[in-house]
Structure formats: C-alpha cells, structure tokens
Amino acid sequence: MSSPLRISVAKANLATATRLAALGRQTFSETFAATNTPEDMAAYLAEAYGPDLQLAQLQDPRNTFLLAEMQGQTVGYALLATDSPLGLPPENTATKQLEIKQLYVVEDWIGTGLGGTLMRRCLEVAQAAGVSAVVLGVWEHNERAKAFYQRYGFREIGELAFKLGEDVQRDLLYRKGLAGRAG
Considering the entire predicted model, what is its pTM? Predict the structure, then answer.
C-alpha cells in the first residue's frame, strides 16, 4: 500500500504561486507570530509572501520548491536554491552548495515525520545536484528547528543578520557536508 504523502516539485504557474504564498504566510505566522510584534510580522509577510513574489521564485531556474501534500492538501514545503554562497568566503567560487532557504510544515503536521521526509528529499536533491554541502539559516531562538537540523548532521558555522520588519535578528548559519564531496 502506498503512502498518502506525496512530495513533488512545484510547477511554475500562478495557481501554485498563490498556494505557496498562502502556505508561506500561514506557516511563517504559526512559527514566529508569538515571538515578534504584529507590526514586524505584517511588514515581513507583505515583503516576503505574495503570488507575484512566489511566481518569480518559481520561475528562477536556481530555485526548486518541494511541495508536501496529504490527501489533496498542501501541508508543507521546502525552497531550495543552487549555487548558494551562504557562509563561503567571497574568494571561494569553486565550492558548490545547495541552500535550504525555507522548510516549513503546517502546525498541525509538526511531529508527524513530515519535516523529516521533506529534509530527506532536500538532501536527495542536493546529492543529485552534485553539491559538496547544504547550508541554511535558522533563527537563534528557534530551538525546535535547531535540534531538527542537528539531527540531520547540520553544524553551526557562523551567523547572519535577518531583518523581520524593523527588527534585525540573528540567524545561525548551519552547514552539512555531503559524503564523498570536496568542500
């Protein structure tokens, strides 16, 4: 019997962009609204999520969106970007990395293994792309996400600023090298 979970690469069209914008707003709000001001959240959501913004991301050939669907409902997604310079010194142009820019699961599905399934698929995409490492940023106060990434072998290698509305926050930079790859 097959699993009702389906993970697929998103199609670059307005319907998908509209669905991603709504899902992004929902999952980002579920994750961060309680620990940020309503004003900063509103400003960030307006800046980061909207059908036109997600359509541009979908059409960028460096990006891949993975959609997680259960019984016809989209319950999570990941945004991957190839050739990420995140955490590399500016003179390093040879190392090829994949960045997990976003990995979100609808609140009701957290703890079900869906996030792990998405992460494994992200790592499969990275292996297939032939990159030497996977990188991501995670808010310093998001303990659940930090523990999740560490379970998959990610280690802290630095930090970067993340602006949420008017609030400049500190994200930790995590990296996972891939077996058999230089870098």
Answer: 0.92
